[in-house]
Design a protein that fits this description.
The complex is a heterodimer. Chain A is α/β, with parallel strands linked by helices. Among the domains of chain A are: 1-299, no CATH class; 312-390, no CATH class; 405-496, no CATH class. The radius of gyration of chain A is 36 Å and the shape is elongated. The chains are: A alpha/beta, B alpha/beta.
Chain lengths: 782, 359
C-alpha cells in the first residue's frame, strides 16, 4: 500500500502560504518533494541552491528552434515554490517538478498552430503561457468568458488566485491579509492546508460547470493527469513522506485520484518538441505582470515586506510599513513627521474597523497615507506604489547558468549574415542597397538599443540622407556576454528584445528631442512595433508640450524620415500622422512662443524657424506650407517682436512669394524707419540678410528695394542708419561683401532686364538638337 | 409660518435619521447620534432591515466617504478639498447632520473672517456695564461646538487670512480654548470635531501653513469619473434649475448635454474620451457645476433669442466663455482642441462650425 502524500495547496507568490509551507515542511520532514513546475528544468534545478543566485529570478523554458516560443516561471524570495525548492536542496531531499512538461505543452501549441495555419482563423499566439489560452482543439467559439457568480475579472483570475476570491468573499481587500488572519491567528500548522483543500474542493464544484472553455479544460485535465502520474511514480519509488506543493486550485484534483490507467491513457501519444531551460534574472516590476504562473501579483514589494516581517504583530506591521513610507517621502523632501505617522496608523486601524476587518490591508494603508501623509495628494502615492508596493529589486543568476536564447539568437544571426564577432578593432562600410548589408546595419542598431554597442557609427560618415553607405567601428568586448544576459529579460530574439526595450524606454521618457532621437534609431533598426509605440508616445508628449521650441526641434528629423525613409525601406505612414500634428501645433503656438525673446533666445529661435522652414519645404504638403506661411505672417505683424525674428520671417515669406515686392519694400522702410529704436532696426536687417548675401546679389528686386530705401534717406538719416547697416553687412562673408561692393561700384544699370545677363548670340538650330534628349531625361512626353 | 428657501439637512432628512438611529445596533463613538456604519449608510444610501429605503446623498466613491467618517471617529479634523462644484459643502453638511444631528455650527470663511468668529466676541454694553463675565461673552460656533461636543464646520478655509487660521492650530491640537480675560478656559467635550472645506484650485489665496495642514486629514473629492454619470447629474440639475428660473425653453436634448460634458471632460482630463489623443488642459476648472451653467445659459439664449430649442450655436458661445479664461494660453489650448479633435469628430460638424463662428 503506497503512502498517502501530503498535499499543500498554496497561493502562487503568497508570502503567507510560503511561511505556513515552510513550517509544515519542517514538522513533516519529507523524504521527497514534488513541486508544480516544469520537469524540463530539472537539470538546472541544483543552481537554485547556488550561493550567487538571488531572487527574483525566473526559469525560462524555450524552444531552441523557435525562440519566440517560450515560457517564464518567475520566483521571488517569498514564493512558496521557491521556499520548497530551497528547503529540499538544502537538506538533500530529492526535488521533482511534476507539471505537464513544456516540451509537450509546446508540442501541443505547435500542432494547434499548424492546424490553424490550414484553417482560416490564424489567431494562435506564439508566446504562450501555461495559464493563458492556447487552443488544443480548434474550437470555433469559446463559451462566454464571464458568469454572474464570478466576482472578479472572470474564470482565469479565479483559477490563478482562488484564495483571493475567497478573501474578497470574506470582505478582505487582499488575499494575503486574509491568509494572515486565518493562519497566524490560529497557529494551525498543516491544518490550514486541509482547510484550503476543502475550500478548493467546494470552489471547484461550484465553478467547474460554468467557468471553462473546452480548450482550457482539456489542457488542465492533461496537466493534472501528469501531476498525478508523477505522484504515483514517487510512490512507486518507495518514498514514504511525500510532500506535494501545487497551486491551491489543483489540490483537490491530486487528492482524489482516479485509476492510474485513465491518466496514462490521457497522456499517451502527445506531440513533443525539444526544449531548453535556463535561469534568468527577473525584476519585481515584471513579477507584477502576468507570466508563467498565471496572473501577475500587484504588490511584490508589499509581499516581500510581509515575508521579511514574518514575526511582527498586526499593529507593528502597520507601523513599520508607514515608517518606511514616511522615510521614502522624507528622502524626496516631502514632510512626514513621526506625529503624522502615528495619525496615519490610527486612521488605517479605524478604517479597517469600519470595514469590519481585523487588520488594515494595503488599500487601507494607502488611503491613510494619502489622507494624512500626502495631504490628499495622489502624486506621492504613485512614488510609493513604484518604490515600495512594487519595488525595484533586480535578481541575479550565477555564471554557470546555461546561455540565454538571446545570445543564441545573436550567434545565429551572425552566422546568417556572415558577420563574426572579433575582439580586434575594425572599420566597415555597409552598402545599404545590398540586402545582407542592410540586415547587418539593422542588427547593429538593434544591439545598440539593447546597450550592447558592438558597433559604433562613425561620426565622420556622411549623413543618412545623402548616401547609401553607413560606416561603423566594430569591436566585440567580453562584457557584452553579460550585457546579453541582462538584456534577456526583454525577449528571446534580438529583434523582439530591442523592440521591447525601445518601447519601455519610450514610455519612460517624456522629453520630445530624446524621443525623436530614439525614433530615429528605432527606424534604423527596423522595429515597426516599437516605432508605432513611439509614434503614439511622441504624439501624446507633443500634445501636452507647451514648449514650441521642443516641437520645432522634433520636426526636422521627422520630416527627414518622411522624405528619405524609403531609402531604408521603412514604413513611414505613421510618421506622417505625427508630423501633421506637430506642424498644426507649431503653427498655432509660434506667435506666442516668439512673443518676448531676448537676444540669445531670438538667435536660437531664428535657427529653429530656419530649420522648420526647410523641414516644411521638405514635406511638400500645400496645407502645411500655407499654415506655416500664415503663422509667419502673423509673426511679422506681432507688436514687440524681436527684430531678428521678424526680419528672417519677412525674408522667408518674400522668398516663397507670399509677399510681393511692393509689400516687401513697404515692410523694409517700415522696419527701418527712424522712429524705431536703432537696435531693433539693426536686428531686423540682420535677420533679413543673415547668410543671405547671395540672395541679395541675385535677387534684383530685393537689391532695388534696399537700394531705393538708401537712396531716399536724407543725409542726416543716412548718417544715423550707417552704423546699423555696417553692422548687418559685417555678418556677410568677405567674398559676398566684395561682390556687393563691385556691384554698387558699377552703378545702377537700368538698361538691363533683370535676370538676363547672357550674350544674345547663340545658334538656335544647334540648341534645338539637345531638346529631344533632355525631354527623354526628364521623362517628358515627346 | 413661512417656508425657508432651503432647509437644513437634519430637518429635511429627519425621518431617515430617526429610522437609522432606531435600527442602529453597532457601537457609537461618544456623543455620536449614529454609529459610523449608519453614517455611511445615510450618506451613500441603502435599505434598512425593516425595508425602509435611505436615499443616497452623495454619489461617488464609497471608500472616500469611509475615509472621511473614519477620520472623524479618530478625533482628527477633516479637510475636504476639491475643485469648485464637487459637493464639498454638501458632504460636510450631511456628515455634521448625521453625526451630531446639527449642521448649523458653521463658520463662513472670507477674507474678513476675524478671530472672534473662531473664538469668542463680547457684548460690549454688558462688558462696559458690568465688566468681563461669562454673560458678556458671545461664543463663536466653534466654541459652542466644543462645549456641546458637536461637529463645527469651517467653510472655505483657505479664504480666511493666515493669522486667523493660526487660531485653529492650538484649538485642534489642545482641544481647549483659553479665555484669559476671565482666567478660564473652555475644554472641548468628547464628540467635538471640525470639518473644513477648501478649494484646491485657487489654493494661492491663503495657502494653509504646514502646521495647520498636519492637523487635518485631507480627503480630495474628485469630479465624476464616468461620462454617463456626469451627463445624468447635469441633465437633472439643469431641469431643476430651469424650473426654478422659469426659462421658457424645451429641456435640453441629451445629445447637446452629452457634447458639452464630453468637451468639459476631455479638456479637464487632458485626453480624448477614446483615450487615444492627449490634449492640453486650460486654466479654467471645468467642473460639473460649470457645465450646468453653460447649458443653462444656452437654454436662456435659445428661449429668448432662438427657437426655444437648444442648438449648437446657443451652447457654443457660453462654452467658449467657460473654457477660455486666460485670453492667451487658454485660447491656444481651445484652438488646438477645436482644430485637432472637434473638427475630425463624426457628427460634430455643426458644433465645429458654430464654434468657429463665435471666434
Amino acid at each position: 500500500m503506497p503512502s498517502e502524500p501530503h498535499i499543500f495547496g498554496i497561493r502562487h507568490h503568497g508570502p503567507g502560504s510560503a511561511r505556513s509551507l515552510v513550517r509544515a515542511l519542517e514538522s513533516l520532514s519529507p523524504d521527497c518533494l514534488l513541486v508544480e513546475g516544469p520537469p524540463d528544468a530539472e537539470s538546472i534545478l541544483p543552481l537554485a541552491a547556488h550561493a550567487a543566485i538571488h531572487p527574483p529570478v525566473a526559469l525560462l523554458i524555450y524552444d531552441p528552434e523557435q525562440l519566440r516560443r517560450s515560457v517564464y516561471y518567475p520566483f521571488a524570495e517569498f514564493s512558496p515554490e521557491w521556499q520548497a525548492i530551497r528547503f529540499g536542496l538544502a537538506r538533500s531531499i530529492p526535488v521533482r517538478f511534476i507539471d505537464l512538461p513544456q516540451s509537450i505543452q509546446m508540442g501541443l501549441a505547435a500542432r494547434t498552430e499548424a492546424e490553424a495555419a490550414v484553417e482560416p482563423p490564424p489567431d494562435a499566439n506564439p508566446t504562450q503561457h501555461p495559464d493563458a489560452s492556447s487552443e488544443l482543439n480548434t474550437a470555433p467559439d469559446a463559451p462566454p468568458a464571464c458568469s454572474p457568480e464570478a466576482p472578479l475579472e472572470g474564470p482565469d483570475s479565479l483559477r490563478a488566485d482562488p484564495l483571493t476570491h475567497l478573501a474578497m468573499a470574506a470582505g478582505f481587500s487582499d488575499g494575503e491579509r486574509w491568509w494572515e488572519h486565518l493562519v497566524e491567528h490560529r497557529r494551525g500548522g498543516e491544518n490550514v492546508f486541509h482547510a484550503v483543500l476543502e475550500a478548493m474542493t467546494a470552489l471547484r464544484e461550484a465553478a467547474l460547470p460554468t467557468h471553462r472553455s473546452p480548450a482550457d479544460a482539456a489542457r488542465e485535465t492533461l496537466r493534472e493527469a501528469h501531476m498525478r502520474q508523477a505522484l504515483r511514480e514517487a510512490q512507486r519509488d518507495g518514498f514514504e513522506r511525500i510532500a506535494l506543493v501545487c497551486g491551491a486550485w489543483h489540490a483537490p484534483a491530486l487528492a482524489q485520484r482516479p485509476a492510474a490507467r485513465e491518466d496514462a491513457a490521457l497522456l499517451k501519444g502527445l506531440p513533443k518538441r525539444k526544449v531548453a531551460a535556463t535561469w534568468i534574472p527577473w525584476t519585481h516590476g515584471r513579477l507584477a505582470q502576468a507570466s508563467g504562473y498565471g496572473a501577475g501579483i500587484e504588490s511584490p514589494g508589499w509581499y516581500e515586506f510581509l515575508w521579511q516581517h514574518a514575526h511582527a504583530s498586526g499593529t507593528e506591521l502597520t507601523l513599520r510599513w508607514l515608517i518606511r513610507v514616511s522615510r521614502l517621502l522624507r528622502g524626496e523632501d516631502l514632510d512626514a513627521s513621526s506625529a503624522s505617522v502615528i495619525e496615519a496608523v490610527r486612521l488605517a486601524e479605524s478604517l479597517a474597523a469600519l470595514r469590519g476587518q481585523p487588520l488594515p490591508g494595503l488599500s487601507e494603508l494607502n488611503e491613510a497615507t494619502r489622507c494624512v501623509l500626502c495631504f490628499g495628494d495622489a502624486l506621492p502615492l504613485r512614488l510609493i506604489e513604484q518604490k515600495l508596493v512594487i519595488g525595484e529589486r533586480l535578481g541575479s543568476v550565477p555564471e554557470e547558468t546555461p546561455s540565454v536564447p538571446l545570445a543564441r539568437n545573436l550567434t545565429q544571426e551572425q552566422k546568417r549574415l556572415r558577420f563574426p564577432p572579433e575582439a580586434t578593432h575594425k572599420d566597415i562600410d555597409l552598402d545599404l542597397r545590398k540586402a545582407n548589408d542592410l540586415d547587418r546595419s539593422r542588427l547593429l542598431h538593434r544591439l545598440r538599443l539593447l546597450s550592447v554597442p558592438w558597433g559604433e557609427p562613425r561620426k565622420d560618415s556622411a549623413s543618412r540622407q545623402g548616401t547609401f553607405h553607413e560606416f561603423w567601428n566594430l569591436q566585440w568586448r567580453p562584457e557584452f556576454a553579460v550585457a546579453l544576459i541582462e538584456a534577456a529579460v526583454w525577449g528571446n530574439t534580438i529583434a523582439d528584445a530591442a523592440s521591447a526595450k525601445a518601447s519601455h524606454d519610450a514610455d519612460a521618457s517624456a522629453d520630445l528631442p530624446a524621443l525623436t532621437a530614439l525614433l530615429d534609431t528605432v527606424l534604423l533598426a527596423d522595429l515597426p512595433a516599437a516605432a508605432s509605440r513611439l509614434m503614439t508616445r511622441l504624439q501624446s508628449v507633443a500634445a501636452v508640450s507647451s514648449d514650441v521650441a521642443h516641437l520645432m526641434d522634433a520636426l526636422p528629423p521627422l520630416a527627414g524620415i518622411l522624405r528619405y525613409g524609403h531609402v531604408r525601406k521603412t514604413d513611414t505612414g505613421m510618421v506622417g500622422v505625427v508630423t501633421d500634428g506637430l506642424v498644426a501645433r507649431i503653427t498655432i503656438g509660434l506667435p506666442v512662443a516668439c512673443g518676448s525673446l531676448d537676444d540669445d533666445a531670438a538667435e536660437a529661435m531664428v535657427d529653429r524657424i530656419r530649420m522648420s522652414d526647410s523641414a516644411i519645404d521638405l514635406l511638400q504638403c500645400r496645407q502645411h506650407t500655407e499654415a506655416w506661411r500664415s503663422a509667419l505672417q502673423r509673426l511679422i505683424d506681432l507688436p514687440g517682436i524681436h527684430g531678428l525674428v521678424a526680419g528672417r520671417a519677412c525674408r522667408l515669406l518674400y522668398k516663397s512669394r507670399a509677399i510681393d515686392p511692393t509689400e516687401m519694400s513697404r515692410r523694409v522702410s517700415l522696419a527701418l524707419s527712424t522712429a524705431n529704436p536703432p537696435i531693433r532696426s539693426a536686428c531686423w536687417i540682420d535677420g533679413l540678410l543673415r547668410d543671405g548675401g547671395l540672395l541679395l546679389l541675385h535677387d534684383e528686386n530685393l537689391w532695388n528695394i534696399l537700394d531705393a530705401w538708401i537712396a531716399q534717406l536724407t543725409p542726416t538719416a543716412f548718417l544715423a542708419a550707417l552704423p546699423l547697416l555696417r553692422r548687418a553687412f559685417s555678418n556677410l562673408t568677405a567674398a559676398e561683401r566684395r561682390q556687393l561692393g563691385e556691384r554698387v561700384a558699377k552703378g545702377p544699370d537700368n538698361t538691363k532686364t533683370p535676370g538676363l545677363v547672357l550674350p544674345t548670340e547663340f545658334d538656335e538650330a544647334r540648341a534645338n538638337q539637345v531638346l529631344p534628349l533632355l525631354a527623354q531625361l526628364l521623362g517628358l512626353p515627346s | 409660518m413661512t417656508t425657508a428657501l432651503r432647509q437644513h439637512a437634519e430637518h429635511q432628512f429627519a425621518h431617515e435619521l430617526t429610522l437609522l438611529a432606531a435600527s442602529d445596533t453597532k457601537p457609537r463613538p461618544p456623543q455620536w447620534k449614529l454609529s459610523p456604519w449608519s453614517v455611511a449608510t445615510y450618506l451613500l444610501g441603502g435599505t434598512l432591515e425593516s425595508g425602509e429605503v435611505i436615499t443616497p446623498k452623495y454619489y461617488g466613491d464609497r471608500r472616500l466617504v469611509e475615509v472621511a467618517i473614519a477620520t472623524l471617529a479618530t478625533d482628527r479634523a477633516l479637510l475636504l478639498l476639491g475643485v469648485p462644484g464637487t459637493a464639498k459643502t454638501w458632504l460636510a453638511e450631511h456628515l455634521a447632520a448625521a453625526i451630531s444631528g446639527d449642521s448649523t455650527l458653521l463658520v463662513q470663511g472670507t477674507a474678513g473672517t476675524s478671530e472672534e468668529s473662531l473664538r469668542y466676541g463680547w457684548n460690549y454694553a454688558e462688558l462696559l456695564a458690568k465688566g468681563p463675565s461669562r454673560r458678556a461673552l458671545v461664543p463663536s460656533p466653534m466654541m459652542r461646538a466644543m462645549e456641546e461636543g458637536k461637529i463645527a464646520r469651517v467653510e472655505e478655509l483657505t479664504r480666511i487670512p493666515a493669522d486667523v487660521q493660526d487660531t485653529l492650530i492650538t484649538l485642534l491640537s489642545e482641544k481647549n480654548l483659553p479665555i484669559p480675560e476671565l482666567g478660564e478656559e473652555v475644554q472641548a467635550v468628547q464628540g467635538f470635531n471640525v470639518i473644513a472645506t477648501a478649494n484646491n484650485r485657487d489654493r494661492g489665496v491663503n495657502e494653509l501653513s504646514s502646521a495647520l495642514k498636519r492637523r487635518f486629514n485631507t480627503v480630495v473629492l474628485p469630479l465624476p469619473d464616468d461620462l454617463e454619470d456626469e451627463v445624468r447629474i447635469v441633465q437633472a440639475r439643469v431641469e431643476q434649475l430651469g424650473r426654478a428660473l422659469q426659462i421658457p425653453a424645451e429641456p435640453p436634448a441629451l445629445e447637446e448635454v452629452r457634447r458639452v460634458v464630453t468637451v468639459f471632460r476631455e479638456l479637464r482630463n487632458g485626453v480624448t474620451a477614446d483615450g487615444k489623443t492627449k490634449l492640453k488642459s486650460p486654466s479654467s476648472t471645468l467642473s460639473t457645476a460649470e457645465a450646468i451653467g453653460v447649458i443653462n445659459q444656452g437654454l436662456s439664449l435659445a428661449a429668448h433669442f432662438g427657437d426655444r430649442t437648444l442648438r449648437a450655436a446657443d451652447a457654443a458661445s457660453s462654452l467658449i466663455g467657460a473654457i477660455v479664461k486666460d485670453p492667451v494660453q487658454d485660447h491656444v489650448v481651445w484652438q488646438e482642441y477645436l482644430e485637432t479633435v472637434i473638427k475630425e469628430r463624426e457628427g460634430w460638424k455643426d458644433f465645429y462650425r458654430a464654434c468657429r463662428k463665435v471666434e
